[in-house]
Amino acid sequence: MLEETMACLGCGYNNGPDFYNSAEEEKIARTRNKQICKALKEYRRQDLRKLKLLLLGTGESGKSTITKQMRIIHINGFETRERIEKILDIRRNIKESMVVILCAMHELGIPLEHAQNSHRMERLLQAADTQDPASITDDLLEDIETLWRDSGVQECFSRSYEYQLIDSAKYFLDKLHEIRQPDYIPSDQDILRCRVLTTGIQFIEFDVHDAGHPVSFCVYDVGGQRGVRRKWIQIFDSVAAILFLADVSSYDQTLREDNEKNRFLEALEIFEQVWKNRFLRSVSILLFMNKIDILAEKVQRGRCISALTDRHPDIFPNFETFTPSSAEKCEFTGSYQRAEGDGRKRRMSRGSKSSETNSDLVKTAVYIKHIFMKIVKGELELTPTAEKLSKDWHQTHVCEYFYTCAVDTNNVQHVLDGCRTLIIRKHLERFGII
């Protein structure tokens, strides 16, 4: 930084006693040095007010959704033009979701309830490989809407943990009648749930006020699939904090790019690598334990994490005997807000079994938090390092955790408000300002 600034100002570096040919040259050089110092102070002042954040995590953990939420909260959301452009992506999500379900029905041996729907299935599968946007006609969407009402399709959907299906499939298929209307304009919630694969580095910048002063945030969202993670190191420089997204509902799923690898185990391993990375040794991590709403649905359907923990007793403590403390229960219930369509708050559960469901949900969420914190504390090592880390390795950074639902704007805004002060304080501490 110093060398670049001096070069821009046209100075040399050697200002020793033999460098200057005359008193006049020395005077000019000292004036330039003062200019350099002033420029560096201004650069540092501006740099301290512009905080660089990284969104990291495995694929489909919710990073891009958090970026969209930042646009909604801090940059006046999406223009009408952008909303209209999203219609095609939403239609693609719908078509691809139904194709995936129909293919899974064949693999799982699940028949259609109504034989007359077979011709609709055949038409859709024939159009599966067509990338032309014009191929997603209203007739095709009508076929999909009819198929979605078939009990065989519903049965296959209930087993979606056995194959790769996007989280928003049910959301869009349930509202397909509305999406088919000619005057349909995607809502914020529609855009948040629209799935588009992140293959490069996305960037967003916005200002927020802290203690009456504007602070600029630059947020980088990098794809989380294995083939894209090599790009992460390109943006490690000058990072104020890392927002690490972990899908806590993924314990019964495998990776899209590796059907043999459990998604939750992969998330734990990547988190450990980021936490121990020598380039990020002084960078604090804000762990977003995301998709709590999907976790609640899985727990209610009886999809327990113990199926995974029993297979890996060397990694996970016994789930059945785990008991969260009263403080941990209060912490979770106080932070969890479930999303409902437009992101409005609602009570955590419904129905006669609500207290039982809530108890299991709280236990599972707190248990998952314990696993991540064991990595932070060095009590769990998934990937042994070549060299033993010293006791003071983590003294210059911290890890704070938050229970999040990325599609719930209220929840995300509350979490981001809590993160902001911590990020600024840690950034100032790092530069020795406080």
Automatic annotation (TrEMBL):
Keywords: Cell membrane, GTP-binding, Magnesium, Membrane, Metal-binding, Nucleotide-binding, Transducer. Its main location: membrane. GTP binds at residues 60-65, 167-168, 192-198, 221-225, 290-293. Mg(2+) binds at S64, T198. SUPFAM superfamilies: P-loop containing nucleoside triphosphate hydrolases (SSF52540), Transducin (alpha subunit), insertion domain (SSF47895). It is found in: Cell membrane. GO terms for cellular component: cytoplasm; heterotrimeric G-protein complex. One of its GO terms (biological process) is sensory perception of chemical stimulus. Pfam families: G-alpha. Residues 338-357 are annotated as: Disordered. Transmembrane segments: none annotated. One of its GO terms (molecular function) is metal ion binding. It comes from the Eukaryota. Guanine nucleotide-binding proteins (G proteins) are involved as modulators or transducers in various transmembrane signaling systems. Belongs to the G-alpha family. G(s) subfamily. G proteins are composed of 3 units; alpha, beta and gamma. The alpha chain contains the guanine nucleotide binding site. This is Guanine nucleotide-binding protein G(s) subunit alpha. It comes from Dreissena polymorpha. The lineage of its organism: Eukaryota, Metazoa, Spiralia, Lophotrochozoa, Mollusca.
